[in-house]
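Appendix B: complex inputs.
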Amino acid sequence: MLRGISPVLTTMILVGAVLVIGVSFMSYVVMLSNSQRVEAYIRSLVADKALNTVMYLERVVDYGDKVSLYVGMVNILNESTTYYITTFKTDYYGLQAKVYRSLETSVSYFNGSKFIGLSPTSVDSGKVYVVSLSGDYVPLSIGTVNIYGYMYRHTGLINITLSKSSLGTDDYVVIMLLVGVGDEYYELLQLSVKVV
Amino acid sequence: MLRLRRGQAEIIGGLIVASALLLIVIPLVINLMTTSTTITTKGYTIRSQFEISRWSEKILSNNTHIINVGSVDIEVVRVWLKNGTLVEYNPWVRIPVASSIPIGALGITNTSEIDSIVTSRGRVFKLEEIIPPQITIPIQYQYPPLGISPGNIMAGSYILSKNISIIVSCQYDSRSCLYPIAGFYYNNTWYINNGSGWVLSNVNIKSGEEVYTNLDNNYARELVVLTYSSPNYVVVNGENLTINITFKNMTRIDSNTSLVVMYLKIIIMNPNKDSDASSEVKVSLIDSTNTSKFISSYATFSSAKVGGAAGSKITIYEGYVMYPLTQFKVFKELGLSSGWYDINIYLTCATTVGNIYVSIEYLAIVTY
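Resulting structure:
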């Protein structure tokens, strides 16, 4: 009698253990793939918006102690879009940058007849993600940064004014367009400018 | 029976492992397939087409028009002026392929005011990029003397055909001229220029003043300065006379310009033949957009004192003034930069008896 019962019980225990381990492992894998899905969604969103946006330096005006950078934008699909803008400084151009530092600027937009100041939102830069040289998103991590929301249709023009004393001789000023996902911001496009 | 049990155990174990693997792998594969998104080729195609259009934009400019020489229509969104002003257009100013628009369509009077033009595709055209380079022809292949071509000379009817702006000021006998304007008498008609090009005179000019537009009596009419002397305008004159006359945007200097030469004929007449008149002429090149930058010369011309009509005495200044820019560029104080330049003639005359009249018979400017 005993010999007949124990194999069944053993089997049941084994099957149960495998199921539990398997389901646990599957849950873990699904959780991982979900985070992959979020990142894939963000990359897709950013890529779509970046394909449809052109950003360029329109004019640089040197006032001696200050400098104004006029940055133009074009939405090639003629859509009304809200972009978020932030500025900071780096040690190298574009993706080669290794060191990021905060930079105080004032940002205004052209409404057709004059420049109007944009109100900043102070954001923890840990929630602002920039593209690194390896292609991954990394947090900016320079304390708090000012994020400016700017909506335009088809073409836009912003003015970024900063004090030259806040720049070192090797610094690059970065003007970055961001896209908002929840309460986080992801790099869309950037302009890296050396102010002489 | 023992073999049968061993076989059973192995099968059961294999089934369990297989089931576990399927439970993990299949959902994972399905999940990964659903998360892999691709950017549609439509997005890339639209962007590629946009970039091709963007870099196909090309414009040129002469003094009066903006010309689309590219292969796509262009829309001008805004223009930056040299004085820092930004002008935005709503609606945008469209320039179809192989077409042009007058500068006035942008609300601008002269291309020299423009710093850059911005299009709807995000192109920024600086003025230097859209002005065709001036080609310098060696002197030996140009018209003599020293390379003046007939079309370069502003004289006679050419004074009126040139759409130039002339700004004048003057003083006579320590009095400032009232509402001074440049005047030219042609085909029995007075024309005036008060800084906005030549127009038929709409002011009362005293009858008979036209005799002072031919001071040397050679039947070639000359450009004069008129001033208001109630109840009408007269050709300015006096014992002590100072005339300041500026011809706006007469020539363009760029980095290739090495020499500027001006040819002038100025006539000074004193109706009283018995008295002498002393005179001084200064000719200057002035940056059109920054009048603090200029280069001047008091160079004397060949001059002749001759008897004029009715016993008057006239002095003729005729000759040229050279500005060797290549040599002068080392003097950074001059700050000469590329762009349009005005010509200024500053003339002072004095006599003891009589009233001096002044006129300009011709003016030519040539760049090398």
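Chain A touches chain B at residues 7, 11, 14-15, 18-19, 21-23, 25-26, 29-30, 33-34, 36-37, 40-41, 44, 47-48, 51-52, 54, 56, 58-59, 61, 72-74, 76-77, 110, 112-113, 154-155, 157 (CB under 8 Å).
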